[in-house]
Amino acid sequence: MLSMFLGEYEHTIDAKGRMAVPARFRAQIDKGAVVSKGMGTCLSIYTAEHWERRSNELVAGLSSDDLRDFERRIYPSASEIDLDAQGRMVIPAKLRAYANLGSEVTIAGVRDHIEIWNRATWQEYQERLDAEGSNIPF
């Protein structure tokens, strides 16, 4: 059974592109993880195991043209994650540019993966969700 990623954390990215991974997420990704373009203007981090499983699910349902486009969009931009002794990961410059990540970011646990957002973009997104109503089933 996979552990869920939960919670929201405000962190920073330094000039070398390093970001501390929240302590409660480190144990889940220390056996390998992948960072890639996410849905919207964010980055997604999946454990290596879940990345492979999710990839297989996605490609199974795509036509050859859609599959080619998907593969060309996701895989070249993806990068394996290694944590340093301080629990930091390096976010590649191209991925930082894609998600418009400056120094202030929000790291969100989103059930089966982690998302990294520009902090202001995340706040605007959350405000929009809150304004749209409360159809939350919990």
Automatic annotation (TrEMBL):
Source superkingdom: Bacteria
Keyword Repeat: yes
Alphabetized UniProt keyword annotations: Cytoplasm, DNA-binding, Repeat, Transcription, Transcription regulation
Cellular localisation: Cytoplasm, Nucleoid
Keyword Transcription regulation attached: yes
Signal peptide: none
Domain SpoVT-AbrB stretches: 8-50, 78-121
Subunit structure, interactors included: Forms oligomers.
Homology family: Belongs to the MraZ family.
PANTHER family hit by this protein: TRANSCRIPTIONAL REGULATOR MRAZ
Protein's name according to its UniProt entry: Transcriptional regulator MraZ
Protein's gene: mraZ
